[in-house]
Amino acid sequence: MQVRSLLLLLALILVAAAAEAGKNRKEKAKKDGSKCEDWRWGPCVPNSKDCGLGYREGTCKDESKKLKCKIPCNWKKKFGADCKYKFESWGGCSAQTGLKTRSGILKKALYNAQCEETVYVTKPCSSKIKSKSKGQ
Question: Measuring CA to CA, which residue among 81, 99, 80, 79 is closest to residue 91?
Answer without folding.
Answer: 99
